[in-house]
Amino acid sequence: CLLDRLDFSKTRKWLLYINGGYLVLAFILIATGWYTHNAAIVTSVSIAGGIIAAGVFLAAVSLLGIYGTREQHQAALFFYMIILFVVFVVQCSVALACLGEVSPISLEEVISAGWKAATPATVYDAERAFGCCGLRNAGETTSSCEKLTCYSSGCPPCLKTMIESVGG
């Protein structure tokens, strides 16, 4: 029988390998967040901080899994499974929300709200990434459009460019 051949020692090895892989992935996330923050690739501190926080959370969960597996600690494994289940539910919810069709009007409202709440550095990053200036016109910006490469040819407004790029 297959279950007789798969005793707990093999399951334990696989759990250790998987959690070891998650630990490596966590350190990669932490290093990526640290690098993007220090190299000024992304000037928004919240984005780099979010990447680092995700790495720290993944490291904590994988260390809990490694501890529970090595010590055969039932309470640690129970909480490990509960955390994994909650993460799974949250990921599925976010995926379904992202797959839902968004009307162009609500997309415009979301982009406008994000634009108003963004720091000038984040606005400049968005303008540089999308090759545009200002939300609806060049007057609606907190950065200097002269620094952008599209300035000489006339930068389009960012709202239209962003809606087109998201497929709205």
From TrEMBL:
Q: Which GO terms describe its cellular component?
A: membrane
Localization per record: Membrane
Listed transmembrane segments: 14-35, 41-65, 77-97
Say yes or no: keyword Membrane present: yes
Membrane disposition: Multi-pass membrane protein
The UniProt keyword set, sorted, is: Membrane, Transmembrane, Transmembrane helix
Q: Which domain of life is it from?
A: Eukaryota
* Name of the protein in question: Tetraspannin
Q: What is the lineage of its organism?
A: Eukaryota, Metazoa, Ecdysozoa, Nematoda, Chromadorea
